[in-house]
Write a structure and sequence with these properties.
Layout (H helix, E strand, L loop, with lengths): L4 E4 L4 E4 L2 E3 L3 H12 L4 E3 H9 L7 H16 L9 E4 L3 E4 L15 E4 L29 E4 L9 E5 L7 E6 L5 E6 L8 E6 L6 E2 L8 E5 L5 E6 L5 E6 L6 E5 L2 E5 L5 E7 L11 E7 L6 E3 L5 E7 L5 E7 L10 E7 L5 E3 L2 H7 L19 E2 L6 E7 L2 E9 L6 E7 L6 E7 L4 E19 L4 E2 L4 E2 L7 E6 L5 E6 L6 E6 L5 E3 L6 E7 L6 E7 L2 E7 L6 E5 L3 E5 L5 E6 L4 E6 L5 E5 L5 E7 L5 E9 L2 E8 L12 E6 L6 E2 L5 E6 L6 E7 L6 E9 L5 E11 L2 E18 L4
Parallel strand pairs: 7-8
Antiparallel strand pairs: 1-2, 2-3, 4-6, 5-6, 9-55, 10-11, 11-12, 12-13, 14-15, 15-16, 16-17, 18-19, 19-20, 20-21, 22-23, 23-24, 24-25, 26-27, 27-28, 28-29, 30-31, 31-32, 31-33, 31-55, 34-35, 35-36, 36-37, 38-39, 39-40, 40-41, 42-43, 43-44, 44-45, 46-47, 47-48, 48-49, 50-51, 51-52, 52-53, 54-55
Helix pairs in contact: 1-2, 1-3
Length: about 725
């Protein structure tokens, strides 16, 4: 123990006054090394040897600095006035806090294994250290990575930093010969995301686009002469541009992640919603379009959802994430599939089961928006598939084999990177080099004082939460005095309540199960939320610190309270429909339903006579609707009123006077807050939608929820910084 902190080595946890602090991976290991050598200098080389070890590729200097910064944030420590961790410039670090040592005890060995059914051929690194004192305290901590397959000799890797921007540079694409890298960056003074290209060997980057309209995810043609990319301009789509700049050409409306076929004749992409789970029917579809122009053709129309396609090296197949169930969250129906573009072959690889056996892909990753890691490129050196996935609380790059002869995954996984930040966006060249993004994300709840009736902000957004944790879906009390949100700040994703005046935070209902989607009643003294328990989805209601009451099982989410607090709006079913759930009776009444479209995100108007909702008409297109609840139920579709058409779905929030509906929209190339005036009599839209608050730049909205009440807006905003790196064999380029 030191200060208010306790280190539990067996559980691999840091706790503050009994509450778990989100800390794992290299930052936690560094803390253990410093504690084992309390009062002594631990050099950077010692940390490199004991924490990073050999056999994994990482930029050590950047990784160490980032890991120490994360550790300091978790301890609320300052490098200028340290209480616990002192920096000795040019040498290393020293723990200077006061330790309270426990009685001697032995801690069992902790290991992580991959592919357990394979013969064990270990390739491990172990960390062992002892806290010694006159009280003979003994603590042992071991982190073991074991790969259960005969390993090939480790190559000697070389790292080259390709960008050094202060903001966000990501989505690298290597040219087939490995000499050029194209990427997206907000490095310009305007701050929007534009495309750049530069020589891998060095030199200045050439700017290719100038509108800042979300120009991302480039990919080179096989001859290196053209680049396809995603842009949010003109409603969004797949565009092409010459490699060193020139006229931009539209290839397909909408679309994400474009990829040239190996012969350059076609481009694969997918249409869908990045913020929707992969295990939701209708969230995505895969298409190919001729590079010379022409109508797109859908690939794998029998999938209820498909996304993230990459071409096989021979160009005969697309490897994609496919889902086959008509029901949401049916994990037996998701996998990587090899699919012929003509529809003649669709082979299930078995990668999902293999990933789960290896602990690399499971429903536990749902809080981060991922049901299964997405394949990103085919290595030119090993012919394996490269993909990023969560390892602890960061993402690392891994590779695995997929047989083109049998269509089956090998079940053997090799870790390529192990940094303190997220390593994502891998791009493979024909030779043995790999580019990726080293990304750092922070998600916090922000507050914006706002006159909701006039549509006028009263200042800029202010951050109201701090610390290294995931946060999402804030909900305000009616007076704007408190905000509830889901957070991993104590371990599992649970519901927290924060008093905005004092900053005091407390658990609404602590649980080992994942909790999400809180919605507060008017006074803020009751919170309804969703819980995911042993494959079941439930909705509970609880007072802060009280005992949760189960309201329903199988319903996905509550979205609003009636003004008398006697009922909740919920949605679920197939397709999703919106029901009214009685708090006392636990009975559900169908309020809104459609034969083919999913209906979700219902919100009551201030007078409790109208409801706003989202009608998802396509995987990436939705309508913001309203309907009067005075009349028959379910409410007839003929009485629904369309308020807005959006490329990405979102829920709406009403102004207090009921004359304005607010929603987020990417119509200007960024997810920003927009408003739509509503006629008081007809309840039809009046005039065009207006921009209520722009959210451009590296602090941006990513559809993790927002709430408008009590003269303010609470939103989860993500702050991202990152740069591009190259991984190649030493002795090569």
């Amino acid at each position: 123990m030191f200060g208010p902190f306790e280190v539990h080595t067996e559980a691999g946890e840091l706790r503050k006054r009994g509450i778990r602090v989100r800390l794992s991976g290299q930052p936690f290991q560094i803390l253990l090394v410093l504690l084992a050598n309390a009062g002594d200098v631990v050099t950077r080389e010692q940390l490199r040897e004991e924490v990073w070890g050999a056999g994994t590729f990482v930029d050590f200097e950047h990784g160490l600095n980032a890991a120490v910064n994360k550790l300091r944030r978790a301890l609320n420590d300052s490098p200028e006035n340290p209480r616990y961790i002192e920096t000795l410039p040019g040498r290393g670090y020293r723990f200077i806090g006061t330790l309270e040592r426990p009685q001697p005890t032995a801690i069992p060995l902790v290991t992580e294994s991959f592919v357990p059914e394979q013969p064990v051929v270990p390739r491990s690194r172990h960390l062992s250290w002892w806290l010694a004192s006159t009280t003979a305290c003994f603590i042992s901590f071991v982190v073991g990575w074991q790969f259960h397959n005969p390993p090939a000799p480790l190559p000697s890797w070389k790292l080259t930093r390709l960008t050094a921007d202060a903001g966000l540079s990501r989505f690298p694409a290597l040219s087939p010969d490995g000499k050029l890298v194209a990427y997206s960056s907000d490095r310009s003074v305007e701050g929007g995301q534009d495309l750049y290209v530069k020589q891998v060997a060095g030199g200045e980057a050439i700017r290719l686009t100038f509108d800042g309209a979300g120009n991302t995810r480039p990919d080179f043609s096989p001859d290196g002469s053209k680049i396809v990319f995603r842009s949010n301009r003109d409603g969004g789509g797949i565009y092409e541009i010459p490699t060193f700049g020139g006229e931009v050409r539209l290839l397909a409306r909408e679309g994400l992640d474009p990829k040239f076929s190996p012969d350059g004749s076609q481009i694969a992409y997918w249409i869908g919603g990045d913020a929707v789970a992969d295990t939701v029917p209708g969230m995505g579809s895969v298409w190919v379009v001729p590079a010379a122009g022409g109508p797109p053709q859908r690939v794998g129309p029998n999938f209820t959802s498909a996304c993230y396609p990459i071409w096989s090296p021979d160009g005969k197949y697309l490897l994609l994430v496919g889902y086959t169930s008509e029901r949401a969250y049916d994990y037996s129906s998701i996998d990587w599939w090899l699919v012929a573009t003509d529809g003649s072959v669709a082979l299930r690889t078995g990668a999902y089961d293999a990933l789960n056996r290896a602990g690399l892909g499971s429903q536990d990753s749902i809080p981060y928006g991922i049901d299964i890691p997405a394949p990103r490129c085919w290595s030119g050196a090993t012919h394996n598939v490269i993909f990023p996935t969560l390892s602890g609380d960061t993402r690392s790059l891994w590779e695995t084999g997929i047989s083109l002869a049998t269509g089956k995954a090998s079940g053997v996984f090799k870790r390529l990177t192990a940094g303190a930040d997220h390593e994502v966006d891998p791009s493979c060249a024909a030779e043995d080099s790999l580019a990726f993004t080293n990304l750092e994300d922070r998600t916090d709840v922000w507050s914006l004082l706002f006159d909701l009736n006039s549509g006028t902000p009263k200042g800029g957004p202010e951050r109201i939460t701090q610390g290294p944790a995931l946060r999402e879906y804030p909900t305000l009390s009616s007076d704007g005095g408190s905000v509830a949100f889901a957070s991993t700040q104590s371990g599992p994703l649970n519901i927290w309540l924060r008093a905005l005046a004092t900053g005091q935070e407390s658990h609404v209902a602590s649980s080992s199960f994942m909790q999400r989607y809180p919605v507060a009643n008017a006074s803020g003294d009751k919170i309804a939320f969703s819980s995911f328990e042993n494959g079941k989805r439930l909705v509970y209601v609880s007072t802060p610190g009280g005992v949760p009451e189960k309201l329903c099982e199988g319903c996905l989410r509550a979205t609003d309270w009636s003004r008398d607090e006697k009922a909740l709006l919920i949605f679920g079913g197939n397709p999703y429909q919106i029901n009214l759930l009685g708090i006392a009776s636990r009975r559900q009444t169908a309020l809104l339903k459609h034969a083919a479209h999913n209906l979700l995100y219902g919100r009551f108007s201030p007078d409790n006579r109208w409801v706003s909702f989202t009608e998802r008409i396509q995987p990436n297109r939705a309508w913001i609707m309203i309907a009067s609840i005075d009349g028959p139920r379910p409410i007839p579709e003929s009485s629904w009123i369309k308020i807005a058409e959006e490329q990405a779905e979102d829920w709406a929030n009403w102004s207090p006077d009921g004359k304005t509906l607010y929603f987020t929209s990417a119509r200007d190339g960024h997810f920003c807050l927009w408003g739509q005036r509503i006629d008081a009599n007809s309840h039809t839209p009046v005039g065009p939608a207006f921009a209520a608050q722009h959210l451009h730049g590296r602090v941006s909205y990513h559809q993790d929820g927002w709430s408008a009440r009590g003269g303010r807006i609470a939103m989860v905003l993500k702050e991202s910084t990152g740069n591009i790196w190259l991984m190649s064999h030493a002795g090569g380029r």
